[in-house]
Amino acid sequence: MTATVSFTIDSPLGPRTATAAYERKGAGEPLLLLHGIGHHLQAWHPVTDVLAADHDVIAVDLPGFGASEPLPAGVPYDLDTVAPALSALCAALGVERPHVAGNSLGGLLALEMGRSGLARSVTALSPAGFWSPAERRYAFTALRAMRAGARALPLPALERISRSAAGRAALTGAIYARPARRSPEAVVAETLALREATGFEGTLAAGGSVRFTHDVTGLPVTIAWGTRDRLLPRRQGVRAKHTIPGARLVRLPDCGHVPMNDDPALVARVILDTARAGAATGITTTAATTTAAAAG
Fold first, then answer.
1. SS3 per-residue string spanning the chain
2. Cβ(95)–Cβ(73) under 8 Å?
3. 65: Cβ contacts below 8 Å, ≥ 6 apart
4. Which of 64, 183, 102 lies closest to 171, judged by CA?
5. What are residue 223's DSSP bridge partners?
6. CA angle at residue 207 from 66 to 4, to 5 degrees?
7. FRET label pair with 33: which of 3, 58, 110, 143, CA 20 to 30 Å apart?
8. Is 33 in contact with 117 (CB distance < 8 Å)?
9. pLDDT-derived band of residue 208, with 50, 70 and 90 as boundaries?
């Protein structure tokens, strides 16, 4: 069941209060799940039960998406604001330095959390930020077209189109390799999430100049890319590997940009393997805190 949590974030305007929606299940080391732009936490539903067998799984709606409130007026949707905000959200839930898995925008945020010492391990599925200027323009144009289509469809028409496999492909084929596997209800819900995302434009504006150019060291990092990703071509995964040489680069056969639905078993295994590698390092929260304090 979806719940909400309020927490304080640091911003260029000073401390502000944000409220986010989340779902939590399972037990074990904490695992934070972050969706992509225009999506919602339900994107993770195909894998959450498997992950929850080993982890305290927290799937969140990013600020301005799904059921989460937008960021306070004037607060930018950039990495310097949102990544620490997610850590503050976890702290409000009694969690420090979780494993983090993210898709697309969520993958970029996961990597930033890893770089900033806010994650135990990182699994990034088709993360944003490794594009060329032309690839970024293409992705942003495609995203804007998807949002325009979602906003133009009246709800009765959307429900009618989603009942057929061809209709589901038309609505979500840009992000799934197997859109017919989505249920009509799921397609309607994610199309409405895209339509109503208050953080969409702010996130695109903040992402216009973003390229992830930092190494991420001291923790396990996996970068996984679907072979049928139509939004962010898989060659960007090679760039990501060059940027983060210690990362494991994994191929997701026959998966699209949002691979959790295309191959739930494979995606769950990739995330669990990365988290186990993080646990195997023996870095506890206390030790990580002590190390950070000593470095400061």
1. CCEEEEEEECCCCCCEEEEEEEEEECCCEEEEEECCCCCCHHHHHHHHHHHHCCEEEEEECCCCCCCCCCCCCCCCCCHHHHHHHHHHHHHHCCCCCCEEEEECHHHHHHHHHHHCCCCCCEEEECCCCCCCHHHHHHHHHHHHHHHHHHHHCCHHHHHHHHCCHHHHHHHHCCCCCCHHHCCHHHHHHHHHHHHHCCCHHHHHHHHCCCCCCCCCCCCCEEEEEECCCCCCCCHHHHHHHHHCCCCEEEEECCCCCCHHHHCHHHHHHHHHHHHHHHHHCCCCHHHHHHHHHHHC
2. no
3. 35, 37, 38, 39, 40, 193, 197, 198, 199, 200
4. 183
5. 124, 249
6. 25
7. 143
8. no
9. confident
34 with 61: CB under 8 angstroms? no
Residue 75, Cβ neighbours under 10 Å: how many? Answer: 21
Amino acid type, 5: V
Structure token digits, residue 280: 């195997």
**Mean predicted confidence (pLDDT) in 51-62:** 98
How far is it, in rounded angstroms, from Cα 131 to Cα 112?
16
Question: How far, in Å, CA of 150 to CA of 128, rounded?
Answer: 22
> Residue 54: CB partners within 8 Å, gap ≥ 6?
26, 28, 272, 275
Average pLDDT over residues 261-271: 98
pLDDT at residue 290 in the model: 25
- The model's pLDDT over 5-39, given as tens digits with 9 standing for 90+, comes to 999 998 888 999 999 999 999 999 999 999 999 99
What whole-number distance in Å separates Cα of residue 293 and Cα of residue 217? 18
Structure tokens at 157: 């028409």
The whole-model pTM stands at 0.93
